[in-house]
From TrEMBL:
Membrane disposition: Single-pass membrane protein
Superkingdom assignment: Eukaryota
Keywords from the named record: ATP synthesis, CF(0), Hydrogen ion transport, Ion transport, Membrane, Mitochondrion, Transmembrane, Transmembrane helix, Transport
TM regions (residue ranges): 6-24
Molecular-function annotations in GO: proton transmembrane transporter activity
Keyword Transport part of the UniProt annotation: yes
Coiled coil: none
Descriptive protein name: ATP synthase complex subunit 8
UniProt family annotation: Belongs to the ATPase protein 8 family.
UniProt key word Mitochondrion: yes
UniProt xrefs under InterPro entries: ATP8_metazoa, ATPase_protein_8
Major subcellular location class: mitochondrion
Record-level GO cellular component terms: mitochondrial membrane; proton-transporting ATP synthase complex
Length: 55
């Protein structure tokens, strides 16, 4: 069964993982902004119960 031979697939997986973690991921993380902490108090939503017509 060729799936059990890890020779070509393991090398491809390691190279892909290293490429993603060392080259692509740092470049992507510079574009994403994190949510800065705010001093606003969290708002609580007020909900009203739903009146079901069939009960």
């Amino acid at each position: 069964m060729p799936q059990l031979n890890p020779a070509p697939w393991f090398f491809i997986m390691i190279i892909t993982w290293l490429t993603f973690s060392l080259l692509i991921q740092p470049k992507l993380l510079t574009f994403t902004t994190t949510n800065p902490p705010t001093s606003k108090a969290p708002t609580t939503l007020t909900t009203s119960p739903w009146t079901w017509p069939w009960t």
